[in-house]
Amino acid sequence: MEKTPKIKTKDKIILAAIEQYNKEGVQSITSRHIAGEMGISHGNLDYHYKTKEDLLVAIYQKMRKEMTALYESQEEDYSALENFHLLLIQFEEFQYRYRFFNLDVLEITRSFPELSKLLQKTFETRKHQTEELFEKFKAEKFINEEYTEVEDRLQHIIRMTISFWLSQREVLSLYNFTEKGEMVKSIWILLKPYLTPSGLAEYGRVIDKYGYTKA
Length: 215
What we know:
DNA-binding transcriptional regulator, AcrR family; Tetracycline Repressor, domain 2; HTH_TetR; DNA binding; DNA-binding; Arc Repressor Mutant, subunit A; mainly alpha; 2 domains; HTH-type_Tx_Regulator; 71% helix
């Protein structure tokens, strides 16, 4: 029987930090809080991550690795629309998994310059990946000609929706779009006016198959 690989202390710190940050927010949690929750000395934690920014960079690298894997996990025999829909569902799950980061992203970028630089590089990469996804929509005749007039702005709005979904949900609390799946629905509402008849048919098939949330 194979033994389960032992989790390294530095990885345990990352997992504990994510849990604490998700509960209380980045600014409310110090390294001493995390060390105390783990039952290790503050010096032990400091040995692995000397500053909060060091720890946040490590968490973000983990996030980026997971997100890159999502972009690269598209099925070759699926349509571009089906792959995009599955990606949106995963994006929303990702938001909840790293809730603190998406809620505190403005504060994080202002407080931690090295992390902010990493974020900007990632945003640039994701912009190109999003453009590639929509080029596949075009190639498969799912997008109409009207889309070409608004594509840059529409892709930007979609990116904003994904990046700030949890933040707007807390600020605009009077609205009822709080259940999981609402982010995915909102993005499709933006896109549906630009789908061709074949795009709408494929959209209907995909929604019937998957719905809007992770099974």
